[in-house]
Amino acid sequence: MFIPLLMIKNSIVFCLLLIAVNNSAQISKSIMPDAFYNCWLASYEEDEPNTNIKIYRPCDYKEFKPSMFRQSITYEKNGVCKYLQLSPNDAHYFVEGKWIYNKKKKVVTIKDDKNKDVFKFKIKKLEKTLMKAEFIEPR
């Protein structure tokens, strides 16, 4: 009886070790390409007319033309994001929210601190200097 008990203990330890290794591998994997994790500015001069497709460029991509408001969003790997909030008195400010990626639908959803959807879009193209997003629910 001593040997089977030892085998059971070893099997349990082995299973727990396997689960721990598998979970740590999943946590370290990014669900989005590295290019996504960046500060992005709306480059509305490049938007596709008469569509919900919007063009974003990295915040340090170029000097943009002056604008009353230019959407800015920063995505972090931990699911946190910061987006520029349009204010009626032109005192725009950053709001911290969270982003969620639905892998099945390929949709990014940005939520505010009350878990309300702020933006929802599909990434049509993502490169180091370009993000083309098709907004599902335009703001």
CATH architectural label of the largest domain: Beta Barrel
Fraction in beta strands: 35-45%
State mean pLDDT (0 to 100 scale): 82
Helical fraction equals: 10-25%
CATH domain class of the largest domain? Mainly Beta
**Biggest sheet record:** 8 strands, antiparallel, barrel
What is the radius of gyration? 21 Å
Structural notes for this entry:
Helices cover about 20% and strands about 35% of the residues. The protein contains 1 helix and 8 strands. The chain has an 8-stranded antiparallel β-barrel. The longest helix has 27 residues. About 10% of the residues are buried. About 10% of the residues have low confidence.
Q: What's the topology here?
A:
Layout: H1 2-28, E1 39-42, E2 53-58, E3 72-75, E4 80-85, E5 93-102, E6 107-111, E7 117-127, E8 130-135
Antiparallel strand pairs: 1-2, 1-3, 2-8, 3-4, 4-5, 5-6, 6-7, 7-8
How would you concisely characterize the structure shown here?
By secondary structure, the protein is of the alpha+beta class.
